[in-house]
Design brief:
There is one protein chain. The protein has about 725 residues and is an alpha+beta fold. About 45% of the residues lie in helices and about 20% in strands. The chain contains 18 helices and 24 strands. The strands form 5 sheets. Strands 1, 2, 3, 4, 5 and 6 form a 6-stranded antiparallel β-sheet that branches. Helix 1 (about 1-75) runs antiparallel to helix 8 (about 280-325), helix 14 crosses helix 15 and helix 15 packs antiparallel against helix 17 (about 685-695).
Length: about 725
Amino acid sequence: MRDATLRLSLRTKLLLGVLLLLLPVLGLLLWGIQATYERGREQVLDRQVGIAQTIAVQVDGLFDECTDLAWALANDPLVRSFDPALVDPHLQRLAPRYSEYLDIEVYNARGESVGTSVPYAPGQPRLDGTQSLLFRRVLASSQPGVSEVHQTPRFEGRPVVSIAVPVLEDERATGTVHLVFDLSQLPPSVASPQLDPQEFGIAVIDPAGRVAFYNRLPDLAWEQRDVSRLPETQAGLAGQTVRTDAFTSPYFGDRRVLGQVRSPRYGWLVAVASPLAVALAPAEEELRRDLLAFGLIALAGIAGAWALSRSLVGPLGQLAALARDLGRGQLGRRSELRTGDELETLGQEFDAMAQLLQRTLGELEAERARLQAVIEQMPEAVILADAHGHVLLYNRLALLALAQGETGQVDTFGNPAILDLRRASGEPAPWEELPLVRAVLQREITRGVELCVRRADGALVPVLASAAPIRGPGGEVVGAVAVYRDISSLKELERLREEWTSVIAHDLRQPVTVINGYAGLLARLMERHPAVPQEQQAVEHIRTSAHQLNRMIADLLDVSRIEAGRLALERQPQDLATLVRQVAERTAEVAAGHPVQVEVAEAPLPVEADPQRIEQVLGNLVSNAAKYGDPDTGILIEVRRRDTEVEVAVANHGPGIPPEDLPRLFSRFHRARQAQAERVAGLGLGLYISKGLVEAHGGRIWAESAPGQTTTFRFTLPLAAPQRVAGERAA
């Protein structure tokens, strides 16, 4: 039973191989069959469109004939008299000559009917032309026109079409002549009686999408004539030629082949539809014949393949067993085929491949051992994974200091959880943000991402994580490597540096305060006892320098608090619009030479904020705008609501900020090239501190600049409840 199953599997493979060889031929044959069917289908569609185009031209010709007759009547002296006593008898005498028209009606400029070819019944009121859109359009434009399909009570509600021309006097319309006819009574030249109505359904549709004529159903109800919602009607009215075999008849519900075109001059649609089974019957018959031939060819190919497989199944079965053993790692197995042909040669190649695999596997194991030894000696924690994220190697000694031990949990790739990686804040890091995951899934290179590893005792160890995909010789990703470096010592050095900065800045305040105090004392003494100008200038320089040094010390302390997370805010309910106006007045000295303008879109704008810190942010931004703006140009401060935030924008005109400097504007000690070139005083901490203060309030800050034009700094603060602000003020 086992041998029979094995032979069947091999035979199936041979059959599939022969079929693969036959596939191009069979594919070309199928393509030819499909192309033949498509040509037949296209010919049917072309025929439908051709018939529709012919009838569309005839419809235009019919309207042209009606228009010519109407023009002739409009130039008739009796008609131009607009005298009912003359026009009525005249038109009624002409009526037998134009029996295809239901009525010929003449209106004067006031819309009064002054003549008709069909006498009115006693007591029946004459038609009022002003109620007709066609009358008003023709009278206003002095151009002929064709109405849409409409109903008229004079002819028992029958759907009719009117053609009207103006009666012109010195190029001014003094009345109109209307020809009324029923399109269901089309002349033979248009209705094409030589076409079998059972095979060709012909419909004429007005520009509003209402059927005026349908040879299959000449007595359509009025509500059945509206086909404007059909996609095919909408496409045809838009000027597209419609040719499809997927049209569903709204009257019979069957699928039809449709050709539809719009008449060139009057924009009426002509649709020619035939039942799908009738129209495509010749093409489908030819398709059935071709498919039968195709099936016979395919059966012949399968039979030949079956015969071939029977003669090869035994040797191939032995080779399959040999290949299966090699796949299981039984590399000592050898071929026993002695057929004297290519199959024996194939068996010998299997033997050579087994020997090569034995040698290659030994080399790979040795290479793996060397790689493991190198990784184990690295001080950083290293993890190697394959292209699917499965961990292959890692250095156990380095990971031992960071790992939390066996937890029974697995990561997103199914590996046992080795590291509990978290953000620098201590929150669990989402798996899609982890460097190794990004390297495996997004093929991204990640360098120097600061994370924390939570150990089993709950302690957080800061690490610097990097990861990159590993690419093969052809550039394909074959794996990924992640490196985690313990930066606890660096963090301790950073903490000591921040602490040292804070201590130094704090200790510098006392001597600076003393210098500032004595400078003030000297200034007051000089006011009592006038001194020479050089002495007064020297004292002023001392006071200015002491004030600048005090500002630098305050900035250093703020930086230390921001980086240590010890920045304290005294939040109070504030109307930000009022606060900005007050700060703008107090910063007038800082912006000397640059008039400051405040624009508030609406008020109040309630926020919960520390007013001194917000003033510090605004002061920094206004000071920067004054330093780097063009001389004597204004500074604009805009305050407006943005959804759940309030946005403050400080704009100035000047040389602007180069695009390459924008990403680093809010970094510590960063100074723009213009500040360095012009030797503007400062440590480069103002924007860094402003960013820390705004973010501590839950807001955002950014810059926009067009070189040589305008630079705008924007920051936002979250809106607070206006009732709370009002209550605080009332208290």
